Amino acid sequence: YYLMFSYFLQKDPDYLKLWLDSFVSSYEQFLDVDFEKLPTRVDDVPPGISLLPDNILQVLRLQLLQCVQKMSDGLEEQQQTLSLLLVKFFIILCRNLANVEEIGMCSYINHVITMTTLYIQQLKSKTKEKEVADQTPIEEFVRHALAFCESLYDPYRNWRQQIAGRFLSTVEKSRQKYKPASLTVEFVPFFYQCFQESEHLKESLKCCLLHLFGAIVAGGQRNALQAVSPATMEVLMRVLADCDNWDDRNPEEVSRKAELTLKCLTEVVHVLLTSSSDQRQVETSTILENYFKLLNSDHSALPNARRCRQWESRFIALQIQMLNTITAMLDCTDRPVLQAIFLNSNCFEHLIRLLQNCKVFQGHLDCLAVSTIQALTAVMHKSPAAKEVFKERIGYAHIYEVLKSLGQPSRELLEELMNMAVEGDHMAVGILGISNVQPLLLLIQWLPELESHDLQIFISNWLRRICCINRQSRATCVNANMVIRIIETLNSRSALHCTCAENLIALLGSLGSQSMGSEELLQLIRLLRTEEPKGAHPYVVPVMRAILAMARKQGMASALQYFNLYHSMAGIAVPSIHKWPGSAFSFNAWLCLDQDQVDPSTSSKSGKRKQLY
């Protein structure tokens, strides 16, 4: 405190600078300005404002204001050093979360944003003087200024934790004692201005700006709804559209910029879902409309100079990132609400059109198709309404033709269709049951078209296991007319490997033991016809085994007709009894309790049980 006493006594700014330098050096471990790193755990905390010298905040505000006023003429080296020390001092103070609200109410942040805006304008202008001059002090100030904003608006570093892969629940956020400072009205114009004519601004600084936006949205809903405006959404879409034009920029930095922009959009969608319509400046449907427009942007309108093979690979890489983000967006607590918004945005049509348009590219088609199927699965996940909408608007016959037109599928694409059927990991047979039978019918139809016999055997073996796992799975497949689809596929005998055909016939036998109509049995017998009267059809033996399996009763006797109460909302409604026959009545019924499928996503939560009442 000797330095501060000397400053107040002699009004010599050198003493103030020495005090600031000493203070910052003592708490330097709190200057974690790298957004990519999680905050360092420190046992100590900076002092509260009440423990600082009297009137120190007013003195620092005047010093900062003087720096702002001299910005237009250019700051001298000493003033640049002082302004950076001031920002570092404020960052350290904010790491004591009890100080955040009071610091945010002062005018420091507005002065800092004014200086940062002018510095970024200098960094955006490409001149000979800039190429010669050292820009490091300016960049250092900008990075610290953005970190100061983060300290005010995301004091618990929620954004950094999410970027690092740690999910924060709503309950965890609600338990955070200190609230972020109220967002200054200067932020939205500042953010918009930074990305205007910013082609010469370093990609790393753009990433810092995106980190700050994400931190504000993740820090608290009140600030998030103020920051999410038409202007900021326009910036995010423009940044995303610019990510396919790398020029001489660092590819890793451009890819990271795209990734951060998509994470920001995901966080924005989640915040908007939890808000009321009168609080929102932008609707989720508007964001999705612009998102799908960019996803399906017309590359043919680009000049030939940009439509090179290298650009194509970059553009497809961006599309794959955007498709994967759809899955991330839908991973939220209000999933049914967001699924309805996606459906109203005609997402199915956009995704199928993407597959149709991607045929003009030479490579990466399979990766794009895999990501598209993943996005479709996410939109339809556990939503019977979404599945019906897809069947009506698109149809699985159409998606089959589109996928087939892309050429021979990879194992990854076929596995993704399996994942769509079980709405999870296809390898978890026995844990996951059939949630969507239509992809299974598509796979059966595709088998004769596959040139790889290994893939034929792999798929047919998996189909045999998943479709016959229990009574519920068999009933689902029978109701979807899978028996006829199998017989149609078996008619392409020359294109099927013998092991694949045997797997399909065994599957047919298992489904037939559940239910088989006369027309289906007739088609099966017709399958054994041969052109040569004396030659036996190679399917005779396995088909006879399948028919014997259908006729043979294994295990306990069971009803041939029954009510299926598998779904959580299933039940039997009976009319009300107007006149009771007596004081009571009895009701008798047989119950068949199949082993229920376990949903891994809910296995850790409180269990559910069926009740008979």
Automatic annotation (TrEMBL):
Swiss-Prot/TrEMBL keywords: WD repeat
A Pfam family per the record: Neurobeachin
InterPro entries in UniProt: ARM-type_fold, BEACH_Domain, Neurobeachin_a-sol
A Gene Ontology molecular function term of the record: protein kinase binding
Protein's GO biological process: intracellular protein localization
Gene Ontology cellular component terms for the protein in this record: cytosol; membrane
Neurobeachin alpha-solenoid region domain location: 307-550
Record flagged with keyword S-adenosyl-L-methionine: no
Residues spanning the signal sequence: none
Name this protein carries in UniProt: Neurobeachin-like 1
Organism whose genome encodes this protein: Colius striatus
Taxon lineage: Eukaryota, Metazoa, Chordata, Craniata, Vertebrata
